[in-house]
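Attaching the record inline, Q. Sequence:
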Amino acid sequence: MSTSNDPSNNASAGKCPFHAETPKQSAGSGTANRDWWPNQLRVDLLNQHSNRSNPLGENFNYREEFKKLDYSALKADLRALLTDSQEWWPADWGSYIGLFIRMAWHGAGTYRTVDGRGGAGRGQQRFAPELGLTTSASIRPAVCCGR
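Structure, as predicted:
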């Protein structure tokens, strides 16, 4: 795969321009998975974005759609969601705010600066291997109930 910035090169189409080069190894960075298993399947190729995979379409105007929202109703719905304690999982002191903060903190704490993967942007804590981590034990019921 070429990392050239040549616009006629289709291999670089749709790729993030900030991660075009392989990260430089720094002192003490350790051994990467690719060092141990150089012939592993490259699943990163599945993570390319294009307009063809956009469910909103090319003419979608986020700003205009946002203006159509009833902000007061949205705020009321969120307030009800946070304070409507469920019998099958009672809220701590009548509020789920602590749980939401924990889930956001956990998601953000998985971001890797080396390759830009992880983080809360895609909700990866819903899937293995992240959901199976011991640090995910307190959020696992919330993730499973939210499906």
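The mean pLDDT is 76. The radius of gyration is 21 Å.

More tomorrow.
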